[in-house]
UniProtKB/TrEMBL annotation:
Gene3D superfamilies: Homeodomain-like (1.10.10.60), Tetracycline Repressor, domain 2 (1.10.357.10)
Protein name as it appears in the record: Transcriptional regulator, TetR family
Origin organism lineage: Bacteria, Bacillati, Actinomycetota, Actinomycetes, Kitasatosporales
Any one GO molecular function term: transcription cis-regulatory region binding
Span of domain HTH tetR-type: 23-83
Length: 213
């Protein structure tokens, strides 16, 4: 057992969900890590600096997370778990618009937008960060996919529509704008992304192809 946290020593750093004082320490460290990432980027993220910002001992941070990538992986896990739940507006367009506006507000936020840029950049060359980022988006896509299945049940979308592809398509234009332009991410951009995806969904663009005979 880990003497400090009472957790199995063989557990991968940053994967446990503690309670009590340890939960408060984790929250402080992850908040500090997010600030450091947004300010300095992944390349300059340092566990000792994060410990100083969080006002916890270096030993605690090194023992619990072990590496910068372990810390970032836990940060992404926490972000996925604490994201707002999906909305249910009763229509495909309404639900996709709610999703797009949630993504837009997140990416337009100075801290969150900078944090995502840093993590995405790190994921291009650091496999564990890439894996954590994939898990983050998998959680979020699975959270919102039921709204597409409900639209199929209501007759708003054709049978066989790939719900996960629809949800990915909503946010894709917003991430593209974030990463490739200096144009602001405003609610109008979110509404356009949602409207285009809803129209493509209704037209059958995301229907899964039938298996070959």
């Amino acid at each position: 057992m880990n003497a400090e946290h009472g957790t199995p020593a063989s557990a991968e750093p940053g994967t446990l969900r503690p309670g009590g004082r340890t939960a408060r320490v984790r929250a402080a460290v992850l908040d500090a890590a997010g600030d450091a990432l947004a300010e300095q980027g992944f390349a300059h993220l340092d566990l000792a600096d994060v410990a100083r910002r969080a006002e916890v001992g270096r030993t605690t941070v090194y023992r619990r997370w072990g590496t910068v990538t372990g810390l970032v992986a836990d940060l992404l896990t926490d972000m996925a778990e604490s994201s707002l739940p999906r909305s249910e507006t009763g229509s495909l367009l309404g639900d996709l618009t709610a999703n797009a506006r949630l993504v837009q507000r997140t990416l337009a936020d100075p801290r969150q937008g900078a944090l995502f840029r840093a993590v995405i950049a790190a994921a291009t060359c650091e496999p564990r960060t890439a894996e954590a980022l994939h898990r983050f988006y998998d959680v979020r896509v699975r959270e919102w996919a039921p709204c597409v299945r409900q639209a199929v049940d209501r007759g708003e979308a054709p049978a066989g529509t790939d719900a996960h592809e629809v949800i990915r398509a909503v946010s894709a234009p917003l991430y593209y704008r974030l990463l490739t332009t200096a144009e602001p991410l405003d609610p109008a951009a979110a509404d356009r992304a949602a409207a285009a995806t809803a129209a493509a969904t209704r037209a059958g663009a995301y229907v899964r192809p039938s298996p070959a005979p």
